[in-house]
Amino acid sequence: MVTSFVILILGFAALVWSADRFVYGAAALAKNFGVPTLIVGLTVVAMGSSAPEMMVSASAALAGKTDTAVGNAVGSNITNILLVLGITALLRPLSVSSMTLKREMPLVLLVSIAAWYVFSDNYFSFAEGVALIIGFVVFIAGLVIISIRAKNQADDPFVSEACEDVPDNVPTKSALFWLIIGMILLPISSHFLVGSAVDIAKFFGLSDLVIGLTIIAIGTSLPELAACIAGVLKKEDDLALGNIVGSNIFNILAVLPLAGIINPSIIDPSAANRDALIMIGATIALIAMSLSFRGTRRINRVEGGLLLVAFLVYQGYIFNQVA
């Protein structure tokens, strides 16, 4: 069991590092081939934080662990809001001013409800997976078109930050090197991570869904936590919140469908009866705390503390049911 934990930790580290290198290489290569910075920033770079979840879900689905893939996507969204945002708001109250964020927050709720609907019959079909992927393509296309047409896109901190993160002046050979390194290490690290997580789950008597909701979801949300802490330390509140909002949309529309497309199957009823409802509730709380129709709204430390307590209660409830 000690070996499984070591492999799990090393797998997470390799997964996060290789995802970062993959995104770096892909973004630099796209920029070198003339793709506009705005498009690269809102697609390749913005998807970067969800790359670990995508690879883990794909590996789990290929291994026949659809529940683990589902738990990873849903659990990551719950973790992003309750744990990551909770800790971030405790460190420093967050101001919400980006129009992009205010526009996307209702969409987070919409796709969360869509995920619940997919789970409601306890079966994740290939067609449902394809439908979610189509939704993702439409979302990305719409985001790019709106951002291009916006006259004041440079004033929107979410859009401007996405563009600033696009690497510049990277030689094509270097971009290709890091892209290939990422492409090789991503599937390898995710394979060992899922394998070790399954071993740990069996040892403690955890279901495939629970292992995805807990250990894997928390581990793959660490990049969001690091990005959010870095954002608040630099007083870039919209960057911190944007990481959570964007990641949650990508998790439902790009990560979750991999489970249905790769391995359509029956899923644990708890995904619809418990976890999707918790995800929807957390999303509603995020919207209530963030949106204001009269200027800037702040997510304060008390609200951050409530989110963190809710996460601990949720985790305790899951493990209590297992016990």
From TrEMBL:
Swiss-Prot/TrEMBL keywords: Membrane, Transmembrane, Transmembrane helix
Gene3D superfamilies noted in UniProt: NCX, central ion-binding region
InterPro entries: K/Na/Ca-exchanger, NaCa_Exmemb, NCX_ion-bd_dom_sf
One Pfam family here: Na_Ca_ex
Annotated TM spans: 78-95, 130-148, 176-198, 210-233, 245-264, 276-293, 305-322
Chief localization: membrane
Boundaries of every Sodium/calcium exchanger membrane region domain copy: 4-142, 175-316
Domain of life per record: Bacteria
Subcellular location(s) of the protein: Membrane
Entry membrane topology: Multi-pass membrane protein
Name under which the protein is recorded: Calcium/sodium antiporter
Species for this entry: Pseudoalteromonas prydzensis
